[in-house]
Amino acid sequence: MCGIVGYIGTQQACPILIEGLKKLEYRGYDSAGVALLNGGYIDIIKTVGRLYDLEQKLDGVSPEGSMGIGHTRWATHGRPSDVNSHPHKACDSDFVVVHNGIVENYLELKGWLTARGHVFCSETDTEVLAHLVENYYQGDLLEAVRKAVSKVEGSYAMAVMSDREKDKIVCVRKESPLVIGLGNGEQFIASDIPAILNHTRETYIMDDGEIAVVQIDDVSIYNGSGSKVNKQVFKVNWDQQAAEKGGFEHFMLKEIYEQPPAIKDTLKDRLNVLDYKVELKELSLENQYLKNLNKIFIVACGTAYHAGLIGKHVIEKMTRIPVEVELASEYRYRDPIIDPEKNLVMVISQSGETADTLAAMKLSKGMGAKVLAVTNVVGSSVSREADSVIYTWAGPEIAVASTKAYITQLVAMYLWGLHIAQLKETLSRDQVTKIIDGLRRIPSQVQAILEQAPKVENIAETVHQKEDLFFIGRGLDYAVAQEGSLKLKEISYIHAEAYAAGELKHGTLALVTEDTPVMAVITQKDIYEKTLSNIKEVKARDAYVIAVTVKSNQSIESEVDEVFYVPENENILMPLLTVVPLQLLAYYAALMRGCDVDKPRNLAKSVTVE
Ligand code: F6R
Q1: Catalytic positions, written as ranges
Q2: What atom of ligand 1 comes closest to residue 406's alpha carbon?
């Protein structure tokens, strides 16, 4: 995890680095630092804490220099502290590095370097990189970095500067994202595009194994075997405004409110309402292969995994193809059984950079499987390595808690299910028409839910001081409950669990008391009565029950303490609606508990380490 930036040009580098780091805080925010080439030597200023703390430290010091690198950290090796913050230097400050990733063999390398006289001052894995570069330096920084990374096992996006070669920053990538922004007489380096977008839209997106020499008026990129790469310029066509708060108090709330347009954008040009068909023009998987599929794996992490759980219900119902949903961190190590001819692996990842998801994808490809990616970031690692991509058009998601990306991932699941169902003719024309019409109604229905936000705020008022909360549901409602529970715990720190409603009596019911409110998601018509019985079970144990359902189930009012109504739609599409009040509940509860909504403790937006 972590975010890195770099600048070389004619302007003062420090403010540019800080501005870039602010855009990368979603990648980590437990410490931060910058290094600047100030005349003949390198100044390093770093601190534990947020960027604000770094700015305080820089106040009055104003380090000068028109070349520098910077870092915002999410600790992996070594607790957050001043000394463990990046940039890290070798023995005598001549070689300074910022790094995102993990050096897996750092203990071995540290031992080797120590035996050769290197003295370490931090507990980090990154510090070995600075010492390695120093060790291999023989008058050519590029060569030294190349040799250093050849000894490293693990992942890295790294920028290196040295006062021995004052005209360049060398950067290198393996399994952690890195972009170079191309300016006029200046260049920018960053983990992600928003960090450089105020300066340039022309970028090079580095690939695994590439190493770049970034100079004021030249960027040269070499591949792993040392040959110069003729890199295509990637032009960014979305603007910075899209990644700003736009009047909302928090990114999360803004992103919740952006869901109607995000859904519209993800559906755009994909629903042919004349013929009532789904058209995924970007798909490059052959129809015959898709028709022959007998199993689909969906692999993802966190919220994206929860989207996969909905995907399982949707795809199985629409296509009758069995779907297995797996956590990428489990799948990658469990030796999955894949038939490359008849199985498809789908990965879902908002960022397209999640380390476990990427590893799962590589493993699948290594076994000969085709991989279809659902991602929100054009040019991300996942998008580049997949055989085919369905983009979600949610726009940049900044809040750590995923909302609009999740809902557009669900949209992608429906589109994908319909696409296969069309090919295999597993749905009738009437069924397809109903679902397509239903999908078209979703944006305005989500909008209608957002207009009821004060009602959710009242519910949050009732439950926010509780320490435990249960979410229950069956089928698709259960999958939504799982997402609701994750949202609540990650930003409000209330202990929340989601249970399949029918499973409660096998143990969990013992925990239900008047102090454990229960959010019951109950929309699926065929199992309504079943879930209602489970609601009665928790009511009988004095739980305060809030139901999320539709108006036609109004009789539920006599069974529960509160009801939140979402608009009616097709059974299968209900998750697109029921998740919205759960997102709002998490938001308001976190706000009322005084939590940092956009940057919850211990978390980061993009998990680029295992
Ligand atoms: C939770 C959340 C995370 C991410 C997970 C995967 O709100 O956002 O659980 O869903 O880290 O991230 P991506 O989708 O970028 O692979």
Answers
A1: 2, 605
A2: 10
Look-up of token digits 């279809």: 372
398 touches ligand 1 (CB under 6 Å) = no
Show Cβ contacts of residue 121 under 8 Å, excluding neighbours closer than 6 positions.
Answer: 83, 127
pLDDT at 1 over 80: no
CA of 166 to the centre of ligand 1 (A): 39
CA distances from 329 to 156, 333, 339, 454 (A): 19, 7, 21, 38
Label residue 601 by pLDDT band (50, 70, 90): confident
Residue 246, pLDDT above cutoff 70: no
pLDDT band per the 50, 70, 90 thresholds, residue 62 = confident
Q: What is the pLDDT of residues 441-459, one digit of tens each?
A: 999 999 999 999 999 999 9
51-80 average pLDDT score: 89
pLDDT score of 239: 67
214: Cβ contacts below 8 Å, ≥ 6 apart? 6, 8, 168, 169, 170, 171, 180, 187, 189
Q: What is the 3-state secondary structure (H, E, C) of 523-561?
A: CCHHHHHHHHHHHHHHHCCCCCEEEEEEHHHHHHHHCCC
pLDDT at residue 337 in the model: 96
Quick check: 390 and 283 in contact, CB under 8 A?
yes
CB of 583 within 6 A of ligand 1: the answer is no
Q: Which of 301, 306, 374, 602 to mutate to test the pocket of ligand 1 (most atoms within 8 A of CB)?
A: 301
Q: Ligand 1 in contact with 412 (CB < 6 A)?
A: no
Domains of the chain: 3-244 (3.60.20.10), 252-446 (3.40.50.10490), 452-592 (3.40.50.10490)
Q: Residue 140: what residue type?
A: D
431: helix, strand or coil: helix
Predicted TM-score (pTM) above 0.70:
yes
Q: Is 354 in the pocket of ligand 1 (CB under 6 A)?
A: yes
Q: What is the pLDDT of residue 248?
A: 87
